[in-house]
Design a protein that fits this description.
Radius of gyration: 18 Å
Structural class: mainly alpha
Largest sheet: none
Helix content: 55-70%
Oligomer: single chain
Shape: globular
């Protein structure tokens, strides 16, 4: 029995169930893959498994679960000096904080991450990652009742529209709306339009009406 082949199938099934919004099935497959990678002592693969589960818990709005797996992923990525993984952890940390607090701390107060984050990692970011960090940068410092930058809502909308990945664009739109960010009405229209593209054939996780 080819276990690598089985794990590949399970990985594909996890992604399918995730898109469908079937969280338990997704978690079952991701946990199975993690157990296999730990058994073969692959730290690189286990780190990716942890961040995948952390992201799933984030989508489920389970902050405690997401942070538990995020911490494990970050420890392995840092041990392996995996810049791409550390960047993903940084982004997920920001999304979690903004979703559950509706605000963000100053750079030096990032939980889990180095005080100068993203620092040296910024040069290694993809186009979409750079856009996301720029979006979060616009909200610092995050005093809920403090003054906002002029035309912030327009700038947020413009930057979100530049995100190349439609799935990531949907995720960030949802985050901004749930967190009560400026320009909610315009963002809702964007979300509805994107939802129609992502759930044209059936009512999956991206369906919105």
């Amino acid at each position: 029995k080819n276990r690598n082949g089985v794990m590949l199938v399970e990985s594909n099934l996890a992604e399918i169930y995730k898109i469908k919004g079937n969280w338990q099935e997704t978690k079952d497959y991701l946990t199975s893959i993690l157990a296999y990678d730990k058994e073969r002592k692959s730290q690189d693969a286990a780190a990716i498994d942890y961040i995948n589960i952390a992201h799933l818990e984030y989508l489920k709005h389970n902050e405690a679960g997401a942070r538990e797996y995020l911490q494990k992923a970050l420890e392995l990525f840092e041990d392996r000096k995996n810049a791409a993984g550390i960047i993903e952890c940084g982004l997920l940390n920001l999304k979690l904080t903004y979703l559950f607090q509706g605000t963000l701390p100053a750079h030096k107060e990032y939980s889990l991450l180095p005080s100068d984050f993203p620092g040296k990692y910024r040069a290694q970011m993809t186009h979409d990652q750079e856009l996301l960090f720029s979006l979060f940068d616009m909200l610092m410092p995050r005093e809920k009742q403090g003054s906002r930058q002029p035309h912030l809502a327009d700038r947020v909308k413009e930057m979100i529209e530049q995100i190349e990945s439609r799935l990531l664009r949907f995720e960030i739109l949802s985050l901004w709306i749930l967190a009560g960010s400026p320009g909610k009405t315009a963002l809702l229209e964007l979300l509805k339009s994107l939802s129609m593209q992502l759930s044209r054939k059936n009512r999956n996780y991206y369906f919105y009406e």
